[in-house]
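Below is one such protein, fold included:
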Amino acid sequence: MNEHAFPPALADLAKYGSSSHPEFQMYEEFEAPEETAWWFRLWTGNDEVDGREFRFFCMEGAGGYTGLWLTREGRPLEAQPVVYLGSEGEIAVMASDVGSFLWLLAQGWGPHEVTEEREPGPVDPDLVRIAERNAPGGRREPAAIVRQAREEFPHFTEVIGAMCR
C-alpha cells in the first residue's frame, strides 16, 4: 500500500472533490513529507521542525492546511484528530477523528466556521451521504464536535506555539 494513500473515509471524501462551502480542496493523497516539511518550516519560521507529526490532506482557498495530527500512538489514521493551520496563523483542533470531521463538513462547517465562528453553510446532501457511509451514527451538532475536540486536545495551540520562532 502507498504510504501516502488515504484511509477509506478520506478516499471517499477525495472522490467528492472540492467544495466552496465549507471551502476545501482535497488532495489526491496525503501531502509528501518533503512538501510538508517545506511548508511547515515556512509557517513556523523554524528550520528545525519538519511537521512529521502531520498528514495534510486538503487546503482551503487562503492557503491554510487541514490534516491529521498523529498524536494517538498506535491508533489508525481515521482515529487521529483533524487540525487546521491557517495562512494567517489560525490554529485549531477541528474534530477528534475523521468521522467527526466528515460530519462537520456535511453540516456546512469548515476551518473558517471553526476558527472565526462564521455562520455555517447549508447542509450538503452529498457530504451527508459520505459521512453516513463512513461514520454511521456519528452525527452530532457541529459545536459539540468542536467542543469535544478542544476538550480532548486542549494543549494543541501550545504544542504548535512551542514550534514557532
